[in-house]
Design brief:
Blueprint (H helix, E strand, L loop, with lengths): L2 E4 L2 E8 L4 E5 L10 H7 L4 E5 L17 H15 L5 E5 L1 H12 L6 E5 L7 H17 L1 H12 L2 H6 L1 H12 L7 H8 L14 E6 L8 H9 L4 E5 L6 H4 L1 H17 L11
Parallel strand pairs: 3-4, 3-5, 5-6, 6-7, 7-8
Antiparallel strand pairs: 1-2, 2-4
Helix pairs in contact: 1-11, 2-3, 4-5, 4-8, 5-7
């Protein structure tokens, strides 16, 4: 896994493919592997870059007790500059969606468009309580209790029952992650609120959410859709927070369709994406 030496320290990332760039930003507690299915499919026609945010995967945790979405966005922007990525699509899941919004607000001229997945413009009381419960369970009951709580919160119950092998694999992958490193990011999410700013976004935007998300209420998706002019929305019924894992093929097709439609109408992409 390559890394970039950035002002805040090394940032690790995965990279595959050539063409119009796509940045995939993972959720709280995630890493680059969480996007493996999408990376394999999208990199057939595009250059896919998957950073591991500070305190996640191989990237060392940030200093201090809080690291905000805007600070993560500064890291991603520095990586974008380091790699020379021109006008990337940015796909952000949960925490990654907060980082995507921060990027769009601070550097709109450098982005092609956004996909906001299971995310919000405001960490409301419900989401803050979910995060606080995760941190409390981890501190007081240990990693196994935390993993059990996580499984219940991030997946739709019926999906769990029908995919016990994948649930076990998810639990095993999480067990080997540096869970303590996510605390500064969780603290940064708690104060997140850009509801008064997102109307400024004029980039092509797709909002995607599960109707049974137990981490970020689906009303957050409607607020994004109603506030960001011209944005599109896709809601998945009977689906939890990690919808890209519950519906991997359908979600990937959704991304490819959204990208292709907008690239076809953008003369600057002509000849840049392989057939």
């Amino acid at each position: 896994m390559p890394s970039a030496e950035l002002p805040g320290g090394p940032l690790f990332f995965e990279e595959a493919g050539t063409g119009v760039p796509v940045i995939l930003l993972h959720e709280l507690g995630g890493n680059a592997r969480d996007w493996d299915g999408q990376t394999a499919a999208l990199s057939r026609h595009r250059r896919v870059v998957v950073p591991e945010l500070r305190g996640h995967g191989r990237t060392p945790p940030p200093p201090g007790e809080m690291y905000t979405p805007s600070q993560h966005a500064a890291d991603v922007y520095a990586l974008l500059e380091h790699l020379g990525l021109e006008a990337p699509w940015v796909v952000g899941l949960s925490l990654g969606g907060l980082v995507t919004l921060a990027l769009a607000l601070e550097h709109p001229e450098r982005l092609r468009g956004l996909v906001l997945v299971s995310t919000t413009a405001h960490a409301d009381r419900y989401t803050r309580e979910v995060l606080a419960r995760w941190m409390q369970v981890f501190r007081e009951q240990g990693a196994e209790a935390y993993l059990n709580r996580l499984l219940q919160d991030v997946f739709y119950p019926d999906w769990l029952l029908d995919h016990l092998d994948e649930a076990d694999r998810f639990r095993e992958e999480q067990r080997h992650r540096r869970l303590a490193g996510i605390a500064p990011s969780a603290a940064g999410i708690a104060s997140w609120d850009v509801r008064g700013q997102i109307a400024r976004i004029r980039l092509p935007t797709l909002v995607v959410h599960g109707m049974d998300d137990r981490v970020v209420d689906p009303t957050s998706a409607r607020i994004l859709r109603q506030t960001i002019l011209g944005s599109e929305m896709k809601l998945y019924a009977n689906t939890g927070h990690l919808l890209h894992q519950e519906h991997p093929q359908e979600f990937t097709r959704l991304l490819e369709d959204f990208f292709s439609r907008h690239e076809a109408s953008d003369p600057s992409t002509a000849g840049r994406t392989p057939p």
